[in-house]
Recover the amino acids of this structure.
C-alpha cells in the first residue's frame, strides 16, 4: 500500500508540472494552423494562398482562425457600407497633362439672317385697292409691284402739285416743296414725272418692294414676329397659306405690311452643349456640311455666341454668317459643323473614369486595396477625354471605368 501511495503521488506531481507548462506556453493545445483565404461574397471559395475569386474577381481575404484575430485591413474595408468603399482589382489610371487637339462637332440649322429682313410699310393711311402677291413666302424681287393703295392724303398732295404747276409755275420753292412731300409719302421719281406729264392725279398709287427675297405678312399672328421663328423661317402654318392682308383692307400710316427675308444672306445656328461652351470663341474657323446638300460644304467662322441657354435644348447657339446666294442651301436645312481651335493644355482623364451625379462629378479613387468615391471638378470634354480642374492630384490613381464600380440600386456617398 505504501508503494501504491508513492506511485500515485508521483503521477499527480507529473500532471501538475505538465499543466503549469501548458499555461506558460501560449500556443499549447494549438496545432499549426494553416492560412486560409476566402471570398467575402462567395464563402464557398476557399484557397490556401492569396488570389482572386473565380466567380466575381474580388481579392480573396485571409480567414480569421480560432484564437487569432485576422490582421487585415481587408476585413475592415469589407465592413464599410458598399456605397462608401468598393474592393476590386480593375485597371487604374492617373491624370495626364497633355494638349488635346480641339475639334468640336456640332449640329445646327440654316436660318435667315434677321439683320437682313426688310420691311414694306405704308407711308400713308388708306385702302388696299389691288394686291399683287398672294401667299406667304412668295419670292419677290427688288422693284416688284406689291400693291396699289388709295389714300386721300396722297390724292390731295398730287392735286396741290398740279395746281402749282398750272397756276404758279414760276414759284420753284413751292413746287419743289410739293414734289418733296410726295416723295416722302412714297411716290417714286417715275410716278411724279407721270402725273406732271399727264396733268392728272392718280387715285391709286402703286407700292414697290425695295428688297428681294421671301415675302411674309408682318401683321400675322402665327408667331413670325418672334425672333427665333423669324430666324428659322418656319411657321406653324403651311408656307403657302394665304396672306392675312386682303384687298379692300385699310392700313394705317406707318403700319408695317410685309416683311421680306433675304435669301442670299443667311446664317447657320449651331447648338453647343454646356461641356463644350467654354472652348467656343468668336472668330474660330468652322467647316459646315449641309445634310440636304452634302456636296455644298463651306467654311466660315464663329461670328456671335448667344449669351444664354435655350430652354428647349439647353444649349448655347453660335452663329456663322455666310453668303447663300450661290450655295442656295434651303432655309431650315440641317447642317453638321466641325469647329477647330488651338490645342488645349490641361489635366485629362478618360471620359469613362468620371460619372455624373446630377450637379456632382465623381471618380473612384484607389485607396490601398479598394476604391472610394471622390468628387472632382471638371471642364471641357474633347476626344473622349475630360478635363479635371480640381479634386485630384497627379499621384492619385482612379478606376479607368467608374461604371464597373457603381450599383444601380444604391446611392454613392461622397466623403
Amino acid at each position: 500500500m505504501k508503494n501504491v501511495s508513492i506511485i500515485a503521488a508521483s503521477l499527480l506531481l507529473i500532471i501538475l508540472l505538465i499543466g503549469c507548462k501548458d499555461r506558460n506556453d501560449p500556443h499549447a493545445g494549438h496545432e499549426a494552423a494553416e492560412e486560409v483565404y476566402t471570398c467575402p461574397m462567395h464563402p464557398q471559395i476557399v484557397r490556401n494562398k492569396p488570389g482572386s475569386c473565380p466567380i466575381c474577381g474580388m481579392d480573396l481575404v485571409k480567414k480569421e482562425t480560432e484564437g487569432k484575430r485576422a490582421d487585415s485591413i481587408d476585413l475592415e474595408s469589407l465592413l464599410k457600407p458598399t456605397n462608401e468603399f468598393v474592393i476590386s482589382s480593375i485597371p487604374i489610371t492617373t491624370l495626364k497633362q497633355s494638349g488635346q487637339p480641339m475639334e468640336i462637332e456640332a449640329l445646327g440649322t440654316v436660318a435667315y439672317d434677321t439683320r437682313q429682313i426688310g420691311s414694306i410699310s405704308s407711308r400713308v393711311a388708306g385702302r388696299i385697292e389691288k394686291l399683287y402677291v398672294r401667299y406667304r413666302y412668295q419670292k419677290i424681287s427688288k422693284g416688284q409691284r406689291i400693291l396699289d393703295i388709295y389714300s386721300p392724303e396722297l390724292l390731295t398732295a398730287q392735286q396741290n402739285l398740279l395746281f402749282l404747276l398750272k397756276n404758279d409755275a414760276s414759284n420753284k420753292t413751292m413746287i419743289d416743296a410739293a414734289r418733296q412731300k410726295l416723295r416722302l409719302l412714297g411716290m417714286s421719281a417715275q410716278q411724279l414725272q407721270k402725273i406732271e406729264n399727264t396733268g392728272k392725279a392718280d387715285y391709286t398709287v402703286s407700292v414697290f418692294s425695295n428688297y428681294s427675297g421671301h415675302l411674309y405678312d408682318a401683321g400675322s399672328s402665327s408667331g413670325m414676329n418672334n425672333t427665333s421663328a423669324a430666324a428659322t423661317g418656319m411657321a406653324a402654318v403651311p408656307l403657302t397659306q394665304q396672306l392675312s392682308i386682303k384687298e379692300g383692307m385699310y392700313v394705317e400710316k406707318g403700319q408695317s405690311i410685309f416683311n421680306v427675308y433675304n435669301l442670299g444672306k443667311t446664317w447657320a445656328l449651331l447648338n453647343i452643349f454646356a461641356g463644350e461652351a467654354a472652348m467656343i470663341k468668336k472668330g474660330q474657323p468652322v467647316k459646315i456640311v449641309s445634310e440636304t446638300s452634302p456636296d455644298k460644304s463651306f467654311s466660315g467662322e464663329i461670328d456671335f455666341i448667344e449669351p444664354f441657354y435655350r430652354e428647349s435644348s439647353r444649349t448655347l447657339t453660335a452663329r456663322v454668317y455666310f453668303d447663300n446666294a450661290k450655295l442656295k442651301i434651303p432655309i431650315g436645312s440641317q447642317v453638321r459643323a466641325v469647329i477647330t481651335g488651338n490645342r488645349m493644355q490641361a489635366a485629362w482623364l478618360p471620359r469613362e473614369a468620371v460619372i455624373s451625379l446630377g450637379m456632382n462629378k465623381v471618380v473612384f479613387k484607389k485607396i490601398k486595396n479598394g476604391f472610394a468615391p471622390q468628387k472632382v471638378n471638371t471642364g471641357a470634354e474633347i476626344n473622349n477625354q475630360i478635363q479635371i480642374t480640381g479634386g485630384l492630384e497627379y499621384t492619385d490613381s482612379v478606376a479607368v471605368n467608374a461604371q464597373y464600380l457603381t450599383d444601380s440600386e444604391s446611392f454613392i456617398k461622397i466623403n
About this structure: The radius of gyration is 43 Å.
